[in-house]
Design brief:
Number of strands: 5
Largest sheet: 5 strands, mixed
Radius of gyration: 14 Å
Order of helices and strands: HHEHEHEEHE
Strand order of the largest sheet: 1-2-4-3-5
Strand content: 15-25%
CATH class: Alpha Beta
Number of helices: 5
Helix content: 25-40%
Number of domains: 1
Structural class: alpha+beta
């Protein structure tokens, strides 16, 4: 995996290391693969994309309850806050860019709805292609 180094974040002008870092530890080990896709999608989307979760350390509460570490712990996934037609537009753009791991959470308050976009299927093969809902 090719992790984004501190001096490489300029390759992704619409995203920052701060918004991608683990909310629990402050660490950030995002891969170029997901970041390049995100930047390409953001450029075509033409609107801000609010990241609710990027990298997660294995000690993050959302990861500790899992039976094995998820895509976020490998820096291969992000959760983007969105709903309605914005979610549909982002799904279209993501699939056009080869993202084949998409989780959809469209329940509850509008402000907490999100899409999980992941590249674990192609970056390490540990995570199968999939579309799911939370």
């Amino acid at each position: 995996m090719d992790i984004v180094k501190d001096d490489e974040w300029g390759l992704y002008p619409n995203f920052s290391k701060d918004e991608m870092k683990c909310k629990h530890t402050g660490l950030c080990f995002m891969t170029h693969s997901i970041m390049k896709d995100l930047q390409d999608i953001r450029t075509l989307y033409g609107k801000p994309m609010m990241v609710s979760s990027g990298y997660r350390d294995v000690s993050h509460p959302a990861e500790r309850i899992k039976t094995s570490p998820g895509e976020h712990t490998f820096g291969m996934a992000v959760d983007i806050l969105c709903f309605g037609s914005d979610a549909i537009d982002l799904i279209d753009l993501a699939t056009a860019h080869g993202i084949k791991r998409i989780g959809v959470s469209m329940k509850g308050a509008m402000s907490s709805r999100f899409l999980h976009l992941g590249v674990g299927d192609r970056d390490n093969g540990r995570f199968p292609v999939g579309l799911w809902s939370y």
